[in-house]
């Protein structure tokens, strides 16, 4: 590209100012009906429209000439960053493809192992870590009270860190369940140090002789046969440290967002967890719906609050100590999905930040460990790094228009990398096919999956950066609703990320308008991002409007 001298800028600036002045005069005339500028208002509109086109053309030319002044070394650096981001994203997609192949290979092999026979049931503790769960705690307690397990062999711990009226509600419900013959305790700590990890660790100190502990979050509802379908595997295999069940959905059909979340959760549990566990790779306890051997927890160093994902942290530490895990896809624990975008983004941001914190802490241990193979190390690395996808997406989007204008992007042979991206959509398709007879109808909702999954990239990118720089942060629990959308005291309002998401949507549209002239093949890519960020931002405004409308009605 021919580089323009700096002397051209005063001329372009003068032309730009002239256009803006003319447009302002005509807009004023159009508004007030003045006949001094033009005899008829339609004429004013036509001239204003013409000047707008001229202004856009001048801005485009100025942008190209401005980029010609940018040193080639900067453009080369941006091109290198773009290529590195594309390669890393392709690696992520390739890792997903590997999991997909492994799932197809193992999905019919030993789906759920044969349950061992039990002559005498052992003592089991059921831990329920809660914090301000006014709307869902009674449902959880009733579900735990209905567990089909010998009453003298089961102890329920309600680890209550609440600071609102949940405390008195739990106290009343616990007293009622005691009268029904259950061993149940409401445990209050003097402080909330360590958040969920601290509560779980504190509860274990009160039951030193209990060998197994089941854990349920407040928004889950275990089936009556849960313990009898999970505990026998731990009894039969002394090297087994944890048994994880599959998550189900209590409110899948609330709205488009919850239906998308259900598809995403199904993809993780049906394909990813099955592939990792049956192939001998390291997998994670999902924080709820699982049973731990207490000895494995202690051997791994106990619950720690160094990260926001204490479940992922403990899972890897336990497996690095030699403990094995078992995933049971046919044992289902239904849970509640966040019904509004703010709660969902807060949940995802916590998971993203916690995963990156685990990545920073655990990757050195993983690669130094002699207990696991090279393949296990590689797959564990891809697992812990998965949320790095989001800042890479943002970075590529920001760089794309610059490289388009400079004509650097058109010269990059990155087309072959796109083949790997067939894997992520197939994960969701196969998960729906495995679980539901009407899977074809559910697959139609994949565009919503793309929109919400991509549109939260800005929020998750911020969380990832926070995790990388070592900022610990507060454990912000996901608000629970139990179908109480109106007047819910835990609902989250609008946050400033909406404005950035709108900005990214407009930026992607601008990039698409440039690509239409300079590189049409990437227009769908940019339009997808414009759609995704726009949908997430508009959904957030929709939720806020509904909350304010409900408050007005009250």
Shape summary:
globular
* SS field, number of helical segments: 19
Q: What's the CATH C level of the domain at 121-338?
A: Alpha Beta
Low-confidence region ranges: 1-13, 34-41
Concise summary:
With 554 residues, the chain is of the alpha/beta class.
Architecture overview:
Helices cover 58% and strands 9% of the residues. It contains 19 helices and 7 strands. It has helices at 8-32, 41-68, 72-106, 137-145, 166-179, 195-205, 226-236, 256-278, 294-299, 310-320, 341-368, 374-384, 389-405, 423-435, 439-443, 446-455, 457-468, 497-518, 523-553; strands at residues 124-130, 154-160, 183-187, 212-215, 240-249, 290-293, 324-335. The longest helix is centred in the first third of the chain and has 35 residues, at 72-106. The radius of gyration is 28 Å and the shape is globular. The N and C termini lie far apart (64 Å).
């Amino acid at each position: 590209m021919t580089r323009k001298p700096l002397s051209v800028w005063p001329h372009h600036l003068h032309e730009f100012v002239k256009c803006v002045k003319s447009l302002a005069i005509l807009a004023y005339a159009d508004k007030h009906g003045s006949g001094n500028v033009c005899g008829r208002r339609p004429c004013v509109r036509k001239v204003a429209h013409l000047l707008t086109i001229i202004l856009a053309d001048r801005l485009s030319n100025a942008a190209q000439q401005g980029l010609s002044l940018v040193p080639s070394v900067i453009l080369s650096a941006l091109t290198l960053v773009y290529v590195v981001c594309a390669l890393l994203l392709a690696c992520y997609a390739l890792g997903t493809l590997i999991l997909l192949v492994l799932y197809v290979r193992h999905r019919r092999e030993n789906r759920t192992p044969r349950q061992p026979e039990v002559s005498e049931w052992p003592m089991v503790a059921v831990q329920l870590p809660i914090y301000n769960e006014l709307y869902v705690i009674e449902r959880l307690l009733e579900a735990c009270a209905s567990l089909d397990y010998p009453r003298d062999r089961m102890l329920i711990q309600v680890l209550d860190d609440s600071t609102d009226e949940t405390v008195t509600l739990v106290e009343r419900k616990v007293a009622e369940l005691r009268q029904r013959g259950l061993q149940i305790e409401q445990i209050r700590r003097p402080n909330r140090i360590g958040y969920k990890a601290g509560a779980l660790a504190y509860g274990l100190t009160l039951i030193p002789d209990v060998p197994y502990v089941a854990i349920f979050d407040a928004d889950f509802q275990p089936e009556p046969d849960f313990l009898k379908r999970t505990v026998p595997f731990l009894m039969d295999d002394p090297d087994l440290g944890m048994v994880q069940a599959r998550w189900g959905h209590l409110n899948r059909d609330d709205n488009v967002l919850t239906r998308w979340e259900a598809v995403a959760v199904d993809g993780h549990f049906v394909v990813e967890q099955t592939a990792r566990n049956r192939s001998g790779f390291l997998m994670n306890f999902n924080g709820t719906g699982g049973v731990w051997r207490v000895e494995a927890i202690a051997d791994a160093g106990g619950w720690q609050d160094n990260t926001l994902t204490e479940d992922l942290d403990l899972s890897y530490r336990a497996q690095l100590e030699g403990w094995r895990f078992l995933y049971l896809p046919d044992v289902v624990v239904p849970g509640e999905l966040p019904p509004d975008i703010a709660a969902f983004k807060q949940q995802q941001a916590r998971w993203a930040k916690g995963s990156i914190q685990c990545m920073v802490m655990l990757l050195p241990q993983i690669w130094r460990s002699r207990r696991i193979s090279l393949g296990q190390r590689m797959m564990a690395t891809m697992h812990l790094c998965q949320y790095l996808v989001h800042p890479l997406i943002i970075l590529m989007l920001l760089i794309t228009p610059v490289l388009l204008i400079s004509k650097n992007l058109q010269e990059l042979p990155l087309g072959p990398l796109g083949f790997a991206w067939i894997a992520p959509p197939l994960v969701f398709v196969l998960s729906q096919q495995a679980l539901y007879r009407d899977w074809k109808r559910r697959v139609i909702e994949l565009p919503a999956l793309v929109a919400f999954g991509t549109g939260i990239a800005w929020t998750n990118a911020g969380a990832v950066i926070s995790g990388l720089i070592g900022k610990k942060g507060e454990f912000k629990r996901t608000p629970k609703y139990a179908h109480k959308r109106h007047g819910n005291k835990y609902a989250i309002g609008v946050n400033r990320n909406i404005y950035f998401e709108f900005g990214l949507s407009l930026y992607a549209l601008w990039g698409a308008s440039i690509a239409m002239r300079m590189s049409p093949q990437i227009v769908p890519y940019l339009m997808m991002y414009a759609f995704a960020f726009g949908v997430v931002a508009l959904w957030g405004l929709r939720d806020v409007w509904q909350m304010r409308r409900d408050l007005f009605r009250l």
